[in-house]
Amino acid sequence: DDTVILACRSARQAHHLGQMLAGYQVETAPAATPLDFTGFKTGPRVRLADQPLSRGFDLPGEKLHILSAGELFGEKRLRPGKREKGAVTAEEQVRIEELSPGDAVVHRDHGIGIFQGLLNMEVAGRRSDFMQIEYLGGDKLYVPVDRLHWISRYQGLTDQQTKLDRLGSDKWQHTKKKVTDAVWKVAQELLDIYARRDLRQGHAFTQPGELYQELENSFPYDETSGQGKAIADVLHDLTSDQPMDRLVCGDVGYGKTEVAVRAAFKVIEDGYQAALLVPTTVLAEQHAATFRERLASFPVRIACINRFRTPAQQKEIIRDLAEGRIDLLIGTHRLLSRDIVFQKLGLLIVDEEHRFGVTHKEKIKKLRAEVDILTLTATPIPRTLQMSLLGIRDLSVISTPPRLRRSIKTFLARHDDLVIREAVVRELQRGGQLFFVHNRVGSISHVSRNIEKLVPQARIAVAHGQMPGHLLEKIMVRFINHEIDVLVCTTIIESGLDIPNANTIIINRADNLGLADIYQLRGRVGRSSRQSYA
Q: Looking at the whole model, is its pTM more than 0.70?
C-alpha cells in the first residue's frame, strides 16, 4: 500500500521510466514535483516527477517513499580527488535513458562496442539490470547498472563507420597507450615552449607616442568598452618585458581587426616587422585593403602574399621582406614557408587559428617561443580556450557590440524557391546585397542559374576556391563595389569578410556544415546599422 515518487532529471527521463515500468505491468501517474503529495493515497502507487533531487527520503508514517534518479539507476557522485582510476568524467558518463539500441559506447577496459539494450538477469541468486554491449564477432559483455561510470558514449564517427573492438583483445589497451603517449608529448612540447617563453627576456616596446595617438584619433568609430579593454591589454603586453601570447575572443563584427591594427602599428613604430596570418586568400586580400586604408596616413609598407600573386611578385616580396623594406606582411599559410625570412619580426597575428591544419599549427607553435603572438577568434578551439582559462595564455574578451548594431534575425527552413525569391527581392528593394552559400563546386553553377530564373533582375556571380586567382579577385572587387547583387559562393567567404551593404545570407544545406562554420558565415552580415537576416 506504500506510494513511491520518483524524482527524474527531465521530462524525457520520466517518459522513458514510465515506458520501462509499463513493461513490468507497473502503472504510473505524473506528479508536479517530488514533494507533490496531493492525492497520493488514491490512484497509481508510483508517481513520476520531472524535477531532480540529489537524494531521496522516506515518510514511514505516511507510507511514502521519494527516490532520486541517481539512487534508482545506481549512479554515484564521485568526490573530487577520489575519482576511481579509469572512470570517465561526469560530462562523459552515459545515461541509460539517452541511449538507444545500436548506439556506439566505450567501456573503459574493453573499448568500443554497440549498446543492445537492458536485460534483467539473475546472477548469484540476485536479480539485477545489466547493459548488454556487443563487440566484434558477436561477443557480448554484460555491465551492471551500478557500473555505468565505466561506460561513455562514443564521440567519433557515425555508428556505420565505427570500428568495433574485439572482446579479450589487447588492441584497446594499445590504443589507449598510444593516445596517452601522444597527449604527454603535446603536453611536454607546450611546457617546453611556455617555459622557454618565461625564461626568455622579451623585447619591451616603447609606450605609445604622438604617432600612435594620431592613429587612435583617426579611428572612425567609437570604441566599445570591450574593444578598449582588449587594446589596453595588448599594449600592456607589448610594453612589458614578457613575451606576449594573448587570445582576443570576440563575436564576429565586434572590432577584433582594429585591435590587430593598433598592435601591428606599435611594433612597426619601434622598427620591427609584423605578420598577419589568415586562413583564406580572400580574407588576406580583405585584411590588406583594411590595413592599407587604416594606415594610409602613415609611412607603413604593407604587402600581401598568397596565390593571387605571380611567382615574380612573390619573389620580389620575399626579397624586400628579408631586406627590411616591408613592415607588415599579410598572407595565408604561405607565410609559414621556409623561404619567408623576416629581417626583424616582432609580432605574429593569427586570425582564426582553428582554420589551420596540424602542420601549420606546429609551425605557429615553434614561432610562439620566439616572438609576440596575438590570436584573434570568434570560435576558439577547445585547447586554446582551455589554456586561456587556465592562465597559460592571456585572454581578452570583446563582449560589447558596436553602437547601433542590431542582432541578426536567423531562420531555419526547408529549401523553398519561393522563400529564396522573397528574401532576394526584399534585400534588393532596400538597395542591399546577398550571399548565397552553396558549398559544392560541382553543382554551384546549377544553383546560380536557378536563382537567375527566380529573380531575373538580379546581377548574379559565382565565387569559389577552385577559380583562377585573378578571376576570383575580380569578382570579389565587383561585389565590394556593388556591381553584383547576389554572390553565389562556397564557404570561401567564411572568415573576416566585411561588406556592410550585404545584409542577407542564405546558407544552402546548412546541415552539411559544422557549427563554427555556420556561425562564421552568419557573421558575414549584420555589419552595419541595418537589420540583417540569415
A: no
